[in-house]
Write a structure and sequence with these properties.
Distance between the termini of chain A: 73 Å
Shape of chain B: globular
Strand content of chain A: 15-25%
Radius of gyration of chain A: 27 Å
Oligomer: heterodimer
Helix content of chain A: 25-40%
Largest interface: A-B, 58 and 57 residues
Number of helices of chain B: 6
Shape of chain A: globular
Number of helices of chain A: 18
Structural class of chain A: alpha+beta
């Protein structure tokens, strides 16, 4: 097999395989760039036996080097959210090291401990405490060594920037790096070391600049799409343009291999229904994928997006009562005003800005796969199954791709590269084309909501019912399904998409009588579903927060004041007030200042989350009643994510969330015919453009006394809701569907006039 | 084979091994190993592949490499040098003021669109050193971002504009 992976990759000078030990012993010498120690071509490691290192050893998390730097090793990946910076702040705080004295390593199943997937904004929330404990314990070990060296009790020692001193006698000091040299600590990780009290934090809670940004603006960063190895072939998948109904696969009736005979080195690779092309030059692979004549067995099994919601309501469902509190009938009996409505909400796509890319080198002795997966450890298990290799013979390395926001085609691309490499016996790089990524995404599922609620004469919400219809998530990647002719399988249990999220459906209000019912329908005959940033919460919030707003309007109460009166707790109130204060909110009943002008303005408020943090948003919008165009002018977003490790990172996330949520609420919808998805690029699946972007004011509500919780999803739902409520304020009309496109706006305005 | 094709990229001549119809992007990525221009759509819809050709922003994903023969191509890697040459600065700064401004404003998330954002903004500021907000929005409108960085890209362009005009930021 090839030696390709042993050679130079991405300018990393190495001629030999790196072991984990080599890497960690290398100290400063190996550290380049912004703080990822290169793993090298991983090296040779294709056939190496090993798995994630033992998480019960301190050495699996922290390596201290002779130059008084440390390598911090963790299993959560950089997605452009600043995860690396935040995790190093946590480790540095416990170790008393400066941010510049540490580097992280790129995720690798042979090097970094298994901390599970980097999903659900869980890095800091769940990955952070584990790393903090390891760093605290490493510090304890180092202090014991220093105490012996300095002949002083541990209690008398202080540490600053990795230099241990005897309190009151600065001449008696030793550097961490002098205690061990490059030797490993060789200590078990018991999790028992005391953590530094929050009151002594110096690094956590500060605005450290993102470590990945300098390389990203100067073209020194290596995204997955730029990874190359010698002797590799360029691969492309060949599929129908746009997936068909889930469960129908993509079966070729015939393939005319002669159709690419004039393209140099191009050839067809096929396994089961999986079809790809490879070529030595990338442009030849692109041309071959386009030119290859394949007749597909078409199956018109989709309802078409116009009849989607009708089909969803007609499907047989499995029903779950998620919340059943108090007595709904009693509550409605006390209603002074009630509101109810049905909401039809779309499939939306992840569509990372750069389509997914992966590189695989597969031989009989093992496999090395590089991809932008959010979960290298699970990716490894799936690849081992597809390739028929034992788990320990598969190594997966992570390279950041472009922002993915959930389960886009990264595993599909990794599977495709691995299948092709196994077939051709050479490394293969697979770059999905725009239409592959748009057409074969694992979409954020569509949703139907029927919501009704009531308010009593005193402005208290006395009844609330949310019924939601949706399907779940897929479990087998498309390439694997096609190659192995596997029957697709849905995930049938678990939270999020499987059942309606009770936190996003009224839990932010104190409501004595509340019922949430989930109607799960089969995915078969619809589209492939998967988690998309803040999974389903934009749907829930759009429906739920509009009904709440309707109650406020019916009761003649300002929407902020109405929420205050009904709020479920201090942390919800905190973000509500913070967003309102940032916006300079003044009390006024919604739609109480309607204008006959062609362009009218409105403002709206919403609250929501994903699971455990607290988010609130205020939107100020313009609506052009002639063209139907909505422009989000100013957005204000507040997020309480407990102890915020780095407020600057979270502010940046709030800005990103609010712009993306605006895009999703105003523009984004997956379209499909009876046979295929038809939104295949940025023209047919438009997103918010530069000229349309709102100004965003982010507010971090810092809670030093609370555990850190997720901060990458929790303002999505409230942003969409705030925009929807602002539309009502501007026009006096409710939109029950999004995206809130000009056609829908004009139709809703026209319906009011008749 | 006809005459060997050469292209000038970041001030240097490079022989091209690819066929003349190959989009410039694939030559920059695979032959010159440049990491600035990126594959985003292959359809000239998104701007992740943007480079300057004689100071004009073009989409390298749809531009045949033969079409830039005789032109001077600048990628993100060469932007500081291009700026220094235009401004007669010696030695060239390590970063174009826009690149520094993108750091100062912490603009990128994943960073994939940022190549095109900086390249397109460098074209704007070369033509119009003090653009209005509306002019920036219009000039940048062909560059998409999925992470939602537009507000900070906007701030970074305005900051760079002030810095380049010699104002204290």
């Amino acid at each position: 097999m090839t030696d390709s992976m042993r050679k130079v990759m991405n300018g990393v000078p190495t001629g030999s395989a790196f072991s984990r030990r080599d890497l960690l012993k290398g100290g400063g010498a190996l550290i380049i760039g912004f703080g990822f120690a290169p793993l090298g071509p991983a090296g040779a490691a294709r056939a190496a036996i090993g798995g994630p290192p033992d998480p019960d050893l301190i050495d699996s998390w922290i390596a201290v080097h002779a130059d008084n730097t440390a390598t911090v090793i963790f299993g959560k990946c950089e997605l452009g959210q600043g995860n690396t910076t935040g995790m190093l702040q946590i480790a540095g705080e416990e170790l008393d090291l400066d941010i510049g004295q540490m580097s992280a390593v790129q995720l690798d199943t042979h090097v970094t401990p298994d901390q599970g997937a980097t999903t659900s904004s869980s890095s800091i929330e769940r990955g952070g405490p584990q790393l903090r404990a390891a760093a605290a314990e490493a510090r304890q070990v180092l202090l014991r060594l220093a105490a012996a060296r300095l002949n002083a009790p541990v209690a008398d020692l202080t540490v600053s920037k990795g230099v241990v001193s005897v309190a009151g006698d600065a001449r008696r000091s030793v550097r961490y790096g002098d205690l061990l040299g490059d030797e490993q600590l060789h200590f078990p990780f018991t999790g028992t070391a005391p953590r530094k009290p929050v009151s002594q934090y110096k690094l956590v809670g500060t605005r450290v600049a993102r470590l990945d940004i300098p390389d990203k603006v100067s073209a020194k960063y290596t995204h997955m799409q730029h990874v190359r190895v010698p002797d590799m072939l360029h691969g492309r998948v060949v599929r129908p343009r746009g997936q068909g109904a889930y469960g129908t696969g993509a079966r070729p009736a015939s393939i005319d291999e002669g159709s690419i005979k004039d393209i140099p080195t191009a050839r067809v690779v096929r396994k089961g229904d999986f079809i790809g092309v490879v070529a030595e030059r990338e442009w030849d692979a692109v041309k071959a994928a386009r030119a290859l004549k394949v007749a597909w067995q078409e199956k018109a099994a989709l309802p078409g997006n116009a009849k989607l919601h009708e089909a969803m309501r007609a499907a047989a469902t499995t029903d779950t009562v998620v919340v059943d509190k108090g007595n709904l009938a009693d509550g409605f009996a006390r209603a002074a005003h009630a509101a109810s409505a049905t909401y039809h909400l779309p499939y939306q796509a992840h569509v990372p800005f750069g389509p997914n890319c992966a590189l695989a080198d597969v031989g009989p002795d093992g496999a090395l796969v590089m991809s932008s997966t959010q979960d290298i450890y699970n990716s490894r298990r799936m690849l081992a199954a597809t390739l028929g290799l034992p788990l320990e013979k598969v190594r997966v390395q992570y390279y950041e791709g472009s922002g993915t926001f959930g389960h886009s085609c990264y595993e599909d691309a990794a599977q495709a590269a691995a299948i092709m490499s196994q077939l051709v016996g050479k490394p293969v790089r697979v770059q999905f084309m725009r239409w592959d990524e748009h057409g074969w995404d694992n979409f954020g599922p569509a949703h139907v909501a029927e919501v009704r609620a009531a308010v009593d004469a005193g402005g208290k919400i006395v009844a609330y019912e949310y019924q939601g219809w949706q399907h779940g998530w897929f479990t087998i990647e498309t390439s694997q399904e096609l190659a192995q002719l596997t029957k697709p399988k849905e995930r049938t249990s678990g939270s999020n998409s499987i059942t309606v999220n009770p936190v996003s459906t009224g839990a932010m209000y104190a409501i004595a009588n509340r019922r949430v019912v989930s109607h799960m329908l089969p995915m078969e005959g619809l589209l492939k579903g998967a988690p998309l940033r803040s999974p389903m919460d934009m749907h829930y919030s759009f429906a739920s927060e509009q009904v709440i707003d309707e109650l406020a309007h019916a009761a003649g109460i300002d929407p902020l004041e109405f929420r205050r009166r009904n709020i479920a707790g201090a942390r919800w109130l905190g973000v509500l007030e913070a967003a309102a204060a940032a916006a300079g909110w003044t009390p006024r009943v919604a739609a109480s200042a309607l204008s006959d002008a062609e362009v009218v303005t409105g403002r709206g408020i919403g609250i929501g989350t994903h699971h455990v943090s607290f988010g609130a948003a205020v939107a100020e919008i313009e609506v052009n009643k002639r063209t139907g165009v909505i422009v989000a002018k100013n957005l204000y977003g507040a997020l309480d994510a407990g102890l915020t490790v780095n407020p600057a990172l979270v502010e940046n996330q709030i800005v990103g969330m609010m712009v993306q949520a605006t895009s999703r609420i105003l523009k984004e919808e997956v379209t499909f015919s009876n046979s295929n998805v038809t939104s295949l690029d940025w023209e047919s699946y438009p997103i918010l453009r530069f000229a349309e972007h709102p100004d965003v004011t982010p507010v971090v509500v810092q809670r030093l006394d609370q555990p850190s919780t997720g901060a990458g999803e929790e303002v999505m739902g409230s942003t969409g809701a705030a925009i929807a409520n602002a539309f009502f304020d501007a026009t006096g009309v409710r939109l029950r569907h999004y995206p809130m496109t000009p056609a829908r706006v004009l139709a809703a305005l026209a319906a009011r006039k008749t | 084979m006809a005459d060997e094709l050469n292209i000038k990229v970041n001030g240097r001549q490079w022989p091209v091994a690819s066929s003349p119809d190959t989009p410039l992007l694939y030559v920059l990525s695979n032959e010159l190993a440049l990491h600035g221009p990126k594959f985003g759509c292959g359809l000239a819809q998104c701007g992740s592949c943007s480079v300057l050709a004689d100071g004009v922003e073009i989409r390298s994903c749809v531009t045949p490499v033969a079409a830039v023969a005789g032109k001077s191509v600048t990628t993100l890697e060469g932007l500081a040098g291009w700026y220094a040459e235009r401004k007669n600065l010696a030695p060239a700064p390590a970063l174009h003021p826009l690149q520094q401004a993108f750091i100062d404003e912490q603009a990128p998330h994943c960073g994939y669109c940022i190549n095109g954002m900086i390249v397109k903004a460098s074209e704007l500021l070369a033509q119009n050193p003090r653009p209005t907000d509306t002019q920036i929005r219009q000039h940048m409108n062909g560059h998409l971002c999925r992470c939602g960085t537009y507000p900070r890209v906007m701030k970074a362009i305005k900051l760079a504009s002030r810095v380049m005009a010699g104002e204290t930021p």
